[in-house]
Amino acid sequence: MSELILKTAAELADSLAAGETTSVELTQVHLDRIAAVDGDVHAFLHIDAEGALSQAAASDARRANGDALHALDGVPIAVKDVLTTIGLPTTCGSKMLEGWVPPYDATVVKKIKDAGLPILGKTNMDEFAMGSSTEHSAYGPTKNPWKLDRIPGGSGGGSAAAVAAFEAPLALGTDTGGSIRQPGAVTGTVGVKPTYGSVSRYGLVALANSLDQVGPVTRTVLDSALLHELIGGHDPLDSTSTTTPVTGLVDAARAGATGDLKGVKVGVIKELAGEGWAPDVMRKFNESVDILTKLGADVVEVSTPSFQHAMAAYYLILPAECSSNLAKFDAMRYGLRVTPDGDPSAEDVMKASRDAGFGDEVKRRIILGTYALSSGYYDAYYGQAQKIRTLIIEDFKKAFEQVDVLVSPTSPSTAFPLGAKLDDPLAMYMQDLATIPANLAGTPGISIPAGVSDVDGLPVGVQLLAPVLEDARLYRVGAALEGAIGPVLSIDKLEVAR
Amino acid sequence: MTAVPDSLGLVGFDEVLERYDPAFGLEVHVELNTNTKMFCGCPATFGGEPNSQVCPTCLGLPGSMPVVNAKAVESAIRIGLALNGSIAEWCRFARKNYFYPDMPKNFQTSQYDEPIVYDGYLDVEVEGEIFRVDIERAHMEEDTGKTTHIGGATGRIHGADYSLVDYNRAGIPLIEIVTRPILGTGAKAPLVAKAYVAALREILLGLGVSDVRMDQGSMRCDVNLSLSPKGSGTLGTRTETKNVNSLRSVERAVRFEMSRHAGILDAGEAIFQETRHFHEDTGTTSAGRAKSDADDYRYFPEPDLVPVAPSREWVEELRASLPERTADKRARLQVEWGYSELEMRDVWAAGALSLIEATVAEGTSPQAARKWWMAELSRSANDRGVELAEVGVTPAQVAEVQKLVDGGSLTDKLARQVFEGLLAGEGTVAEIIDARGLAVVSDDGALGSAVDEAIAAQPAVAEKIRGGNQAAAGALIGAVMKATGGKADAKRVRELILEKLA
């Protein structure tokens, strides 16, 4: 194992700039690491060694000419398999899209390519991003590098595990209800859900269009800021994309690293604690709150009463949107086609293909969503859920009149054993209790490692939330907290081999 | 479902009206002629190689997203304003969810309860009487792909061996214009329906927002019809006859459904709400899909698009730039062209207003333009059951022929033969004149002998002319024309006769 894989993306960028290493070397050591440990972790669905090395060689040539495209030019990255990539399979963790190779790049993929980041491969995920454990992947679960019989979180368990296992210094994830932040929390990594609309969704195979957002998965707050600035900004191909420039995040992370939070008001969310929250998680969380106080922040408790309905609203809006989004998988133009015996009609082929191509969790949500949108039920379900959404937005607004950022544990427990909640969808859904409100309101959030549990030695995450378009606050407070807590993830704490 | 009586005998039209009041409504789909599609940058032109004008968005590939075509929104607003409608200050697109192989996403991006245009109207004239057609809404949506069913007897999906889908049409911007139920038209219901579609087409042509070619599907009509007991003031159960694609068919569809409904109601049976297919060849309808509460499109606002909120300033700008209102234009042209009220009404009813206007713009006199369009060409259109605009002759060709008549190289009689050739698709005006040998004979040598023969054959007439009665020359001119098969230049013949008998 090369010590290079232990460096952060910012450090690797500096090494490249100083001529101490090359992109080809960096890419190769990460490919070697993948070859060594991914058999155990299963973070990747597709590895593109050839493509990554050729992009790395091109990066080195540019740098030799003094034409580096970006600070991160040459630093390799992994991409969640829900983002389209020209020439690379994009399965969304589903049999339905096995072998499908998109003819176009997602805007965020184009951006990282244009900046010169070699793409190592595509990471595992719950099927169509539905799940909190990666166990709903049609291609088998990803394991938590800390303890291989534990879940890595989901749906973006592959991206988080790849970064935690030092298989990649950076990864892209997507977060619809916590799919970046919750895997971050249970793998001891940093995950950010940017403000809704501030990162293009074009080429993100939609789970729930009004909730989805692409974001960075990294090992440090600064690395997230670097990647976030790179992928953010207006995209004319995404009508919901905001026109506000995504800047100042790296500066905020550097400012926060000084450890001074004087004058910053932090609100502890009253509703995201208590029953249902593991005591070891709460102990770690409370330590983080104490650290914030010590750094000079003014910590108060705030109440967001509508958050208690967030889960219910989320599980109406999400299935409604996804039931419609997934209708396009009809075996007519791409993807799995199952032709029943006899003389099947187009409708028979659609039915058989959808039956074979979708897993149980996907079917469950399609049925839920179809029901929620049905004539006569729309007002009672989808309509009511939208009203709750408005209340949650108002709760955030009121809270942010009192404080600059909100804080809560990211996830109610540390990584649970594989299989533990597979037969209990509701228990699985509860994993996202603290992360869902930000998706419903479009506000940004970050999860950073708060330390390890005093019970099982597994990482605990702390979540910071900021007002819409105030993502910089997450980086300032997050970097300060990260510095004071000290490193949580280290290769020696992992069960996967060094 | 209970067995549906498709038809229990047709009731004569006049008899229907003795017992029932008809109510009808029209849903007209208009393909806009924008350069690009509704939600992507693909060309929106007609006739490309199948599946050559497609991209991830209009193919519904995973991850693709729509972006609204601003030009289409502008066209929708202009249509709304021309139809005297209100323009929504804020409206959204919605997904209409249903599965069909030519629907790339298996939902159609449309508008549901927030149309961009609402509460308009259009006044239409039938036999001198004005009927106001209330327009409930006009909304924006995307077209589906086009499916061709191969094999099987009916050309429909059932029984087909296989089907081909062309997604070039998927995503073409559509405006759907929906009327309220139109009541109180009685015996004129079929004509009012036709007149409404004709008037709508005229407005859309004037706006330049669509090709409005019913034969190519860029304008498509669904006809809703119901009957209620005479004088009851209620609305009966309706049927929806889909894809009625000519003005004449609109009239026939209303007429046929009135007769069919009456037959069922007379027998004490109920009308089932269903969609029906129209058959151009027989002018009849047949049962399509049962339409009931089972049809649940699960509409919800399209989360990938932001609301459309046209500013009032923009709307007023568009209002100010609207072309002349049709009624005003009609009145103005009647004066300019010197037509009588009756002539103008006939021109309007024949759908010839724009055609004559275009012909006049090419330099033809209004009288000559009216003559060709209302006589030769209307007759041919009627015979073939097509719209005048689709008869196969363009205003430019009419003007070209008339120019030759004015210049003396064609007679009216020869011009008629040119039109015959044009209608038969024999080529350009020049090609037809050439191929059919229709050039006027003005060669003095050839005409001279014909004139001599005519003079010799009618000495008494010749004597009159010698005596100074020039009007008598007509008889000799007629004889020469007859002798030359109508190809002689009448003006030159007259000159020759007068010279020879001076």
TrEMBL record, chain A:
Ordered alphabetically, the record's keywords are: ATP-binding, Ligase, Nucleotide-binding, Protein biosynthesis, Transferase
Please tell me one Gene Ontology term that the record gives under cellular component.
glutamyl-tRNA(Gln) amidotransferase complex
Which enzyme class, named as a word? ligase
Record: active site: 80 (charge relay system), 155 (charge relay system), 179 (acyl-ester intermediate)
Superkingdom to which the source organism belongs: Bacteria
Quote one Gene Ontology molecular function term: transferase activity
Task: Quote the PANTHER family the UniProt record gives.
Answer: GLUTAMYL-TRNA(GLN) AMIDOTRANSFERASE SUBUNIT A (PTHR11895:SF151), TRANSAMIDASE (PTHR11895)
Protein name in UniProt: Glutamyl-tRNA(Gln) amidotransferase subunit A
Record the organism.
Nocardioides albus
Task: Name the encoding gene, please.
Answer: gatA
UniProtKB/TrEMBL annotation, chain B:
Q: Name one GO biological process term.
A: translation
What gene, per UniProt, encodes this protein?
gatB
Q: How does it assemble?
A: Heterotrimer of A, B and C subunits.
Which family is this protein grouped under?
Belongs to the GatB/GatE family. GatB subfamily.
Question: Does the keyword Plastid feature in the UniProt annotation?
Answer: no
Keyword Secreted assigned to the entry: answer is: no
What InterPro entries does the record tag this protein with?
Asn/Gln-tRNA_amidoTrfase_suB/E, Asn/Gln-tRNA_Trfase_suB/E_cat, Asn/Gln_amidotransferase, Asn/Gln_tRNA_amidoTrase-B-like, GatB, GatB_Yqey_C_2, Gln-tRNA_amidoTrfase_suB_CS, Gln_synth/guanido_kin_cat_dom
According to the UniProt entry, what is the EC number of this protein? 6.3.5.-
| Swiss-Prot/TrEMBL keywords | ATP-binding, Ligase, Nucleotide-binding, Protein biosynthesis, Transferase
Q: What is this protein called?
A: Aspartyl/glutamyl-tRNA(Asn/Gln) amidotransferase subunit B
Query: Molecular function (GO) terms listed?
Result: ATP binding; glutaminyl-tRNA synthase (glutamine-hydrolyzing) activity; transferase activity
Task: Cite the SUPFAM superfamilies for this sequence.
Answer: GatB/YqeY motif, Glutamine synthetase/guanido kinase
Q: Which reaction is this enzyme known to catalyze?
A: L-glutamyl-tRNA(Gln) + L-glutamine + ATP + H2O = L-glutaminyl-tRNA(Gln) + L-glutamate + ADP + phosphate + H(+); L-aspartyl-tRNA(Asn) + L-glutamine + ATP + H2O = L-asparaginyl-tRNA(Asn) + L-glutamate + ADP + phosphate + 2 H(+)
Identify the species of origin.
Nocardioides albus
Function of the molecule: Allows the formation of correctly charged Asn-tRNA(Asn) or Gln-tRNA(Gln) through the transamidation of misacylated Asp-tRNA(Asn) or Glu-tRNA(Gln) in organisms which lack either or both of asparaginyl-tRNA or glutaminyl-tRNA synthetases. The reaction takes place in the presence of glutamine and ATP through an activated phospho-Asp-tRNA(Asn) or phospho-Glu-tRNA(Gln).
Residues forming the Asn/Gln amidotransferase domain are 354-501
